[in-house]
Write a structure and sequence with these properties.
The protein is mainly alpha-helical. It is built from 14 helices and no strands. The protein starts with 8 loop residues before the first helix and ends in a 6-residue tail after the last helix.
């Protein structure tokens, strides 16, 4: 019998990190190169240097901010999903499943339809407010009854809230034919039409969200041991949860404001990362951001290829990827363990 050797987890993490960075660079190059118009590498190089001498170079110049937005949004959603799963100790936690994305979407729909908001800053603040209120609402509902906020109750409360908020979005925009088309398209979730100006408004919020989420890694490791053990180790449990949740809400709200509600990235990515590098949040959080960026870039590229000369919005592609994965997780977990 041939002996097999297994690379220790600690030694494999740098290998996976280098591999995923290489994949990310490859996907960035493909995202710039692939679209409804075929382009040559000389045009790509010229566009990256800031030259727009022909239609191909103009097309590439439009793809660059789109690729950057997909990278940032994927990283934000992957990281926020890992944080939410760590806070709730819930394998089904996800900005979409817990209703956070739809809370942001409902707040934006109300702001546009009833208050006439038009500025990018207003979109972002309203979306973050909606995401925060939705998170508090779902956690409050999931905490009612015996056992407190169990993973199963949070998942059920979040799913019901998402459905209710989605219906409310339709009810809000239905009488407004002047904005209904734009809101419905935005509600699908996508990165098309991205510009550097749009991203400049959202970058400060994403930066704060990334920092708050990444520095919560040690706190999430303590919370994974249970509230009593975390308190015994000197952690302020409520403060630890609140600071980590604030980072996740900023990431979700800001991403939803600029891209619309994109689902399942925050669910799929943390599970994949745990298979690769384990459960230590000091590694899990940055890996979730990295692989989330790869997943959304790849989904955007797939959406451009399979529907050429048209394209599928990235939110549709991630739903096709994430829905079977969600079913697999539910079937894999015992109901009492959820």
């Amino acid at each position: 019998m041939i002996a097999t050797t297994r690379i220790p987890l600690r030694q494999s993490r740098p290998v996976w990190l280098a591999l995923m960075l290489a994949v990310l660079l490859l996907l960035c190059a493909l995202s710039v190169a692939i679209g409804t118009r075929d382009v040559d590498w000389p045009d790509i190089i010229a566009a990256l240097q800031g030259r727009i001498d022909n239609i191909s170079q103009a097309a590439i110049a439009a793809r660059i901010p789109r690729s950057l937005l997909a990278l940032l949004a994927g990283a934000a959603l992957g990281l926020s999903g890992a944080v939410m799963q760590g806070i709730t100790r819930n394998p089904l936690a996800d900005p979409g499943i817990l209703g956070v994305n739809m809370g942001a979407a409902l707040a934006v729909a109300i702001g546009v339809a009833w208050f006439g908001i038009v500025s990018a800053q207003a979109y972002i603040w309203v979306a973050i407010l909606g995401a925060g209120l939705a998170a508090v609402f779902v956690y409050t509902i999931g905490s009612v009854g015996r056992g407190g906020a169990t993973p199963l109750k949070l998942a059920l409360a979040g799913t019901a809230t998402s459905v209710a908020f989605s219906s409310l979005v339709v009810a809000v925009i239905l009488p407004r034919n002047d904005i209904a088309g734009g809101i419905r398209l935005w509600q699908v979730g996508g990165v098309g039409g991205a510009t550097m100006e749009r991203m400049s408004h959202v970058l400060p919020f994403l930066a704060v969200g990334f920092v708050l989420s990444l520095i919560s890694a040690k706190k999430l490791n303590a919370l994974a041991l249970g509230d009593d053990m975390a308190a015994g180790l000197g952690e302020r449990v409520a403060l630890a949860r609140a600071s980590a949740a604030l980072g996740a809400i900023l990431l979700c709200g800001a991403t939803t404001a600029v891209c619309g509600p994109i689902g399942f990235v925050g669910l799929v990515v943390p599970h994949l990362c745990r298979l690769l590098i384990g459960i230590d949040h000091r590694w899990l959080l940055p890996f979730s951001a990295l692989i989330g960026a790869c997943l959304l870039l790849a989904s955007d590229i797939i959406g451009r290829i399979i529907a050429r000369p048209n394209e599928l919005e990235v939110g549709i592609v991630t739903a096709f990827i994430g829905a079977p994965f969600f079913i697999w997780i539910v079937r894999r977990q015992r109901l009492r363990d959820l």
